[in-house]
């Protein structure tokens, strides 16, 4: 990597899944989101980080890992369920190897999947000892990965901020969870949905957060206009440093028309044997109620804008990766050459993405990153990879501007999380937030163990109700029933406990049961709402 | 979505129903089962309506009985049989004695079947204001029974029939207000405003019905007790709507920088900056932006920020 670069590129991957934990049933399909993300994104990223380190490639990457994701990765039951998921997949792949013996191309692919899931099982159980958090932490500890935190349950600040204590709690618990798993203070935060409100600045500072990632117009529409646009961070009057998303590089990856993931050689997401295989054959591997779902075993490539899909070819996919990373690399070199002369410091090009894009949706994404990072390391290049923290340390002189209220949702503000499909929820979130603050003031530093337990569980239920995911799902109109149920469950549990606490009639059995379902944030202290 | 083998599920349902709700007639049970698929598509519509009329509330709670989990279904049914009394109650839990062996991976036993519905209202006088976009505000409100009674006491039993609700929008930054007529069937509203990046506050009040003739107010229908043409009820919180454009109009001569390590603040004349100096212009951040972004982002209406992250290929689509 260039030792005296003209500019920097910073990749930030946001790894998040909502808290989904159902010890009471094995029938929740939603639990599979975690397993799919582990097999398709988290393990492939770890595998590639290790390869890069082994090959002595100097690279830098930043990842946010949200508290619910960390908790789920750490949870023994979900680890057990993931192993169960892998075993089922391996069994299916073994059957597939036999079934596809009639076609050498298909057969090769089914063997590939068999190897891949078997390797996942080996890595997960034998190498990582079921502990993916420590695996990520290792790369942070050796200095190639910077892990940042997020709001406790991905609560969307631009909706919660009308009760500032509730955003304070999101931040406090996010930082507390990070410290628990990574043994140090996080320097940065991924604001849930990149939702920036200036009201959060003071709490971010209070809990030691130096910087946040914001959407492009969070910087470009800032006041006063930042002289370097998104090519340099800004610092708010409250002291929060904000890095903005670079639009050009984002578009190259994201564009639905000519974005990289749409390459015709890449794997077609929507052709899955869960939907295509003979029903009786596939039945044991789809939903228990017989509904066809994705299995993750996909044999086709995008091929073109046609329903006639050709088989996936691993080598062709790698060829496209090589070509695209070359294009991305050249585009950044050009961009930096154009921008650097106008700046006093080397520019930073920030490339934030959902981590799960890499691998889950864009199957080749993790290998694309690996190939790109090697290219940056070995090729003649005018830029270097950097983390936001390293950039701040190198260039601490930052223009003072107030970032613009913004998010990375459609149209850049609150429409995704506040629209006629989900606006009935907000009054309940606000009311529960107000009631939580009321409880903290009615029973400050409660000494009674049971009441304290109930108060802390109230805080958990409130935080879980606040996940931006439920509002998003309702807007997106998929799995809506599940999201609506989760809102009702958490608000319902909160309200029941709130009333019991105030009447001083806590149903201990009930409390214990809901705790076992929603036992995230072991060390939470409801006094954060005081 | 809970996925359960159908046969197993139905068995469980029947068992649970027998155990818990002996009073529920079997015919009702059938109705609930068969209506499951029919009701599913209508839930969102009903939930929307539930915002508008109290009556719909009981309907909405019925539709939630469609949840596939057997035990929940039982609880739901129980609630609907008591619909009259559940209006303000939030939660109901039922103990279900499970004799069958726990065969989940967790091996954990749960005995309490939970069913919740969101309360229709909290019986609290409130107006809350949020922004949806730089020029769209979202407001929700409610008036408590106590406050309603007070108003009736003061202005007569027919106060709510003789008056209509209004929202008065105050733009505190630019110092103007305007009024929007709303109705008593709504409990929330989206409002377009013309100025972004301004502080707004909303006032909820009521006005006596006016009788108009050819657009002119001819008389105000008042009662002896309503002797004013406006009765304020309550105020909202104040919020600032977001900015929606590059603030090129706010030309600045001096730029301020903070060294975040030392907290030292320094100022620079914009004309000293590398590029601006080289072209000999001052106050020309827009020139610099044109260089950076080829003008494409300077106009929001051109969709420069149509954000890909919520457009498809996102982890959010897991959901």
List the helices and strands and how they pair.
The complex is a heterodimer of chains A (530) and B (319).
Chain A: E1 7-15, H1 32-54, E2 61-65, H2 67-74, H3 76-99, H4 104-127, H5 132-141, E3 145-150, H6 157-160, H7 164-182, E4 188-190, H8 201-206, E5 211-214, H9 216-220, E6 234-235, E7 241-244, H10 247-254, H11 273-276, H12 279-282, H13 314-339, E8 348-354, H14 365-378, E9 383-385, H15 388-394, E10 397-400, H16 426-442, H17 449-465, H18 468-476, H19 480-503, H20 508-517
Parallel strand pairs in A: 1-2, 1-8, 1-9, 2-3, 3-4, 4-5, 5-7, 6-10
Antiparallel strand pairs in A: 6-7
Chain B: H1 6-20, H2 26-39, H3 43-52, H4 56-63, H5 70-81, E1 91-95, E2 112-116, E3 126-133, E4 136-142, H6 145-155, H7 159-162, E5 163-171, E6 176-181, E7 188-192, E8 199-208, E9 210-213, E10 216-220, E11 231-240, E12 254-259, E13 265-269, H8 274-278, H9 285-293
Antiparallel strand pairs in B: 1-2, 3-4, 4-7, 5-6, 5-8, 8-11, 9-10, 12-13
Helix pairs in contact in B: 1-5, 3-4
The radius of gyration of chain B is: 29 Å
Number of strands of chain B: 13
What helical percentage do the residues of chain A reach? Answer: 40-55%
CATH superfamily of the largest domain in chain B: Immunoglobulins
Low-confidence stretches of chain B: 1-90, 299-319
The overall average pLDDT of chain A, rounded, is 96
Count of individual domains of chain A: 2
Which fold name is given in CATH as the topology of the largest domain in chain B? Immunoglobulin-like
3D structure, described in words:
The complex is a heterodimer of chains A (530) and B (319). Chain A has 530 residues and is α/β, with parallel strands linked by helices. Chain A folds into two domains: 7-34 and 41-72 and 131-266 and 314-410, 7-stranded beta/alpha barrel (Alpha-Beta Barrel); 418-529, Up-down Bundle (immunoglobulin/albumin-binding domain-like), CATH 1.20.1430. Helices cover 50% and strands 9% of the residues of chain A. Chain A has 20 helices and ten strands. Chain A has helices at residues 32-54, 67-74, 76-99, 104-127, 132-141, 157-160, 164-182, 201-206, 216-220, 247-254, 273-276, 279-282, 314-339, 365-378, 388-394, 426-442, 449-465, 468-476, 480-503, 508-517; strands at residues 7-15, 61-65, 145-150, 188-190, 211-214, 234-235, 241-244, 348-354, 383-385, 397-400. In chain A, strands 1, 2, 3, 4, 5, 6, 7, 8, 9 and 10 form a ten-stranded mixed beta sheet that branches. In chain A, strand 1, helix 1 and strand 2 (61-65) form a beta-alpha-beta unit. In chain A, helix 16 packs parallel to helix 19 and helix 17 packs across helix 20. The model of chain A has no long low-confidence stretch (mean pLDDT 96). Chain B has 319 residues and is α+β, with helices and mostly antiparallel strands. Chain B folds into three domains: 6-116, no CATH class; 128-240, Sandwich (Immunoglobulin-like), CATH 2.60.40.10; 254-310, no CATH class. Chain B contains nine helices and 13 strands. Chain B has a four-stranded antiparallel beta sheet. In chain B, strands 3-4-7 form a three-stranded antiparallel beta sheet, with no helix packed on it. Chain B has a two-stranded antiparallel sheet with strand order 1-2. In chain B, strand 9 (210-213) and strand 10 form a beta hairpin. In chain B, helix 3 (43-52) packs antiparallel against helix 4. The longest helix of chain B has 15 residues, at 6-20. The relative contact order of chain B is 0.08. Mean pLDDT of chain B is 68; it is low at 1-90 and 299-319. The chains are: A alpha/beta (530), B alpha+beta (319). At the A-B interface, helix 1, helix 3, helix 9, helix 10 and strand 10 of A face helix 3, strand 2, strand 3, strand 4 and strand 11 of B.
């Amino acid at each position: 990597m260039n030792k005296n670069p003209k500019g920097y590129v910073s990749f930030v991957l946001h790894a998040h899944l909502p808290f989904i934990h159902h010890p009471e049933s094995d029938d929740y399909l939603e639990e599979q989101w975690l397993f799919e993300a582990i097999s398709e994104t988290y393990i492939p990223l770890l595998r590639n980080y290790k390869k890069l380190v082994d090959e002595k490639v100097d690279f830098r990457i930043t990842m946010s890992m949200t508290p619910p994701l960390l908790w789920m990765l750490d949870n023994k039951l979900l680890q057990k369920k993931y192993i169960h998921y892998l075993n089922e997949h391996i069994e299916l792949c073994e059957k597939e190897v036999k079934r596809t013996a009639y076609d050498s191309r298909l057969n090769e692919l089914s063997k590939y999947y068999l190897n891949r899931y078997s390797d996942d099982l080996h890595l997960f159980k034998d190498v990582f000892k079921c502990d993916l958090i420590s695996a990520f932490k290792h790369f942070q500890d050796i200095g190639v990965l910077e892990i940042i935190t997020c709001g406790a349950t991905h609560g969307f600040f631009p909706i919660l901020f009308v009760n500032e204590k509730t955003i304070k709690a999101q931040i406090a618990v996010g930082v507390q969870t990070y410290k628990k798993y990574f043994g140090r203070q996080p320097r940065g935060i991924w604001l849930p949905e990149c939702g920036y409100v200036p009201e959060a600045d003071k709490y971010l500072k209070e809990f030691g957060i130096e910087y946040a990632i914001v959407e492009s117009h969070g910087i470009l529409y800032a006041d006063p206009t930042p002289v370097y646009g998104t090519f340099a961070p800004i610092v708010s009057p409250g002291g929060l440093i904000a890095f903005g998303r670079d639009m050009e590089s984002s578009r190259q990856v994201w564009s639905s028309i000519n974005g990289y993931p749409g390459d015709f050689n890449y794997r077609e997401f929507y052709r899955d044997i869960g939907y295509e295989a003979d029903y009786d054959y596939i039945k044991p591997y789809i939903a228990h109620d017989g509904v066809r779902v994705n299995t993750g075993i996909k044999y086709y490539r995008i091929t073109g804008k046609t329903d006639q899909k050709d088989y996936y070819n691993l080598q062709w996919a790698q060829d496209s990766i090589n070509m695209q990373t070359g294009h991305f690399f050249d585009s950044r070199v050009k961009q930096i050459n154009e921008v650097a002369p106008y700046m006093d410091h080397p520019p930073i090009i920030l490339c934030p993405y959902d981590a799960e894009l890499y691998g889950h949706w864009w199957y080749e994404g993790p290998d694309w990153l690996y190939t790109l990072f090697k290219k940056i390391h070995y090729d003649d290049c005018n830029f270097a990879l950097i983390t936001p923290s390293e950039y701040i340390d190198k260039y601490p002189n930052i223009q003072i501007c107030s970032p613009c209220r913004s998010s990375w949702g459609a149209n850049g503000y609150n429409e995704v999380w506040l629209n006629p499909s989900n606006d009935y929820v907000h009054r309940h979130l606000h009311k529960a937030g107000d009631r939580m603050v009321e409880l903290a003031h009615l029973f400050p530093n409660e000494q009674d163990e049971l009441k304290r337990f109930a108060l802390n569980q109230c805080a958990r239920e409130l935080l879980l109700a606040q996940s931006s995911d439920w509002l998003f799902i309702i807007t997106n109109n998929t799995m809506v029933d599940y999201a609506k149920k989760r809102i009702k469950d958490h608000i319902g549990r909160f309200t029941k406990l709130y009333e019991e606490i105030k009447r001083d009639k806590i149903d201990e059995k009930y409390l214990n049961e809901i705790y076992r379902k929603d036992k995230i944030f072991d060390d939470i202290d409801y006094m954060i709402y005081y | 979505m809970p996925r359960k083998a159908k046969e197993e599920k139905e068995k469980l349902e029947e068992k649970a129903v027998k155990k818990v709700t002996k009073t529920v007639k079997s015919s009702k049970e059938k109705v609930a089962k068969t209506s499951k698929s029919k009701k599913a598509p209508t839930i969102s519509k009903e939930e929307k309506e539930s915002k508008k009329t109290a009556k719909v509330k009981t309907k909405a709670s019925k539709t939630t009985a469609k949840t596939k989990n057997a035990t929940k279904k039982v609880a739901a049914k129980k609630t609907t049989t008591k619909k009259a009394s559940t209006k303000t109650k939030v939660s109901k839990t039922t103990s279900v004695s499970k004799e069958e062996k726990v065969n989940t991976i967790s091996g954990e036993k749960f005995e309490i079947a939970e069913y919740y519905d969101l309360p229709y209202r909290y019986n609290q006088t409130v107006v809350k204001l949020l922004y949806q976009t730089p020029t769209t505000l979202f407001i929700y409100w409610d008036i408590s029974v106590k406050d309603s009674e007070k108003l009736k006491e003061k202005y007569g039993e027919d106060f709510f029939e003789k008056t209509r609700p209004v929202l008065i929008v105050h733009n505190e930054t630019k110092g103007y207000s305007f009024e929007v007529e709303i109705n008593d069937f709504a409990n929330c509203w989206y409002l377009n405003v013309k100025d972004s990046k301004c502080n707004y506050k909303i006032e909820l009040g009521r006005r006596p019905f006016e009788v108009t003739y050819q657009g002119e107010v001819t008389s105000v229908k008042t009662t002896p007790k309503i002797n004013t043409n406006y009765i304020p009820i309550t105020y909202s919180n104040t919020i600032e709507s977001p900015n929606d454009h590059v603030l090129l109009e706010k030309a600045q001569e001096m730029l301020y920088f903070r060294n975040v390590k030392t907290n030292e603040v320094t100022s620079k004349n914009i004309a000293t900056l590398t590029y601006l100096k080289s072209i000999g212009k001052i106050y020309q951040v827009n020139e610099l932006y044109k260089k950076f972004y080829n003008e494409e982002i300077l106009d929001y209406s051109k969709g420069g920020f149509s954000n890909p992250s919520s457009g498809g290929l996102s982890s959010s689509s897991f959901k």
